Amino acid sequence: MNATSPAGALLLCRAEPETVRPVAHLLRERMLLAPAGDEWSVLVPEGKPWQGEGAEAGAPDVVEPVDRVVAGWAAALAVGSTWPVLALWWDGDRAGCTLASGFRRPVGYVWLADGTPAGEDEAMRTFAERLGLDPVLDVQALEELIRPDPDADARIRLRGLLAVLTRTGLILPPGLDPDTPGDRLYAAADDRPEAEPVARTGRCEEVKAELDAVGSSRLGPWMRGPRARALAGAQLAAGLPLALWGLGRRSGGWVLAGSLLLAHGALGLACDRMRGAEEPADGRG
User: Fold this and answer.
1) With 67 labelled, which of 87, 137, 245, 280 sits at a CA distance of 20 to 30 A?
2) Alpha carbon of residue 10 to chain centroid
3) How many CB atoms lie within 10 A of CB 143?
4) Are the CB atoms for 89 and 43 separated by under 8 Å?
């Protein structure tokens, strides 16, 4: 890894593609979705937010740090889901990972390009706990990644993290790993027959897809009655300050996370109302 290495990122979701697909649509970003082993999926973003493409011809380059963008995406995907999202990212100076799970505070770790650890040691134990890893063997393997090692650069550290996750069933498709240059990741994913584009849909289709996804998940029973209203209220209360914080930092990823919290809260209230209206029609109390 060197200063000229293009930035890259992968979003690893601990869920099957059919479960991830409707939630990924809400990001409204050009991505490819592919299975990644047993009960894992991978999202490969096109990467424009950190590749410096202006919004209009002749506009100045718009560059946002890759870690900030993917952290916001991971948080947005994990909001209201029953599965965690692990974002892997790298650029010419650093590499790292961010784990998002529900409403809990995302946890991340960073290595400098030469592999020097630059994060909190407790992060790896939190990773293991939230991903359901072995508290002894897997934690020991993760802790090896945060110890000084002159022979392990940042990419090797990320591959070590992926090696631990193979014990949970993760198998990345060929060509999708930290060894692939960031500007070629999307092309590598596009060459895989099992990869599918995450299409951008209209608002009505997005709401319907989200209702279907939530209704078929373990969150389904929560989407009605007092619990649904309490959950929706919490999402609305958390979403606004998060979106404002993202605006203050000019971070599109965190603005999106806050916006999705607001959308989930509004959706939860709408879903509760819709289901409440349907109950008398089927004659069940």
Assistant:
1) 137
2) 8
3) 13
4) no
∠ CA(32), CA(268), CA(214), 5° rounding? 45
pLDDT in tens, 18-73: 999 988 887 888 999 999 999 999 999 988 778 655 444 344 455 688 998 999 89
Residue (of 192, 188, 162, 159) closest to 175 by Cα position: 188
Query: pTM, whole model, 2 decimals?
Result: 0.74
Q: pLDDT tens digits, residue range 255-282?
A: 767 777 777 677 767 666 665 555 554 4
Q: What is the 3-state secondary structure (H, E, C) of the chain?
A: CCCCCCCEEEEEECCCHHHHHHHHHCCCCCEEEEECECCCEEEEECCHHHHCCCCCCCCCCCCCCHHHHHHHHHHHHHCCCCCCEEEEEECCCEEEEEEEECCEEEEEEEEECCCCECCCCHHHHHHHHHHCCCCCHHHHHHHHCCCCCCCCCHHHHHHHHHHHHHHHCECCCCCCCCCCCHHHHHHHHHCCCCCEECCCCCHHHHHHHHHHHHHHCCCHHHCCHHHHHHHHHHHHHHHHHHHHHHHHCCCHHHHHHHHHHHHHHHHHHHHHHHHHHHHHHHCCC
- Answer yes or no: are the C-beta atoms of 275 and 232 closer than 8 Å: no
Domain ranges of the chain: 8-197, 203-278
- Residue identified by tokens 């593609």 is 17
Q: Which amino acid is at 212?
A: D
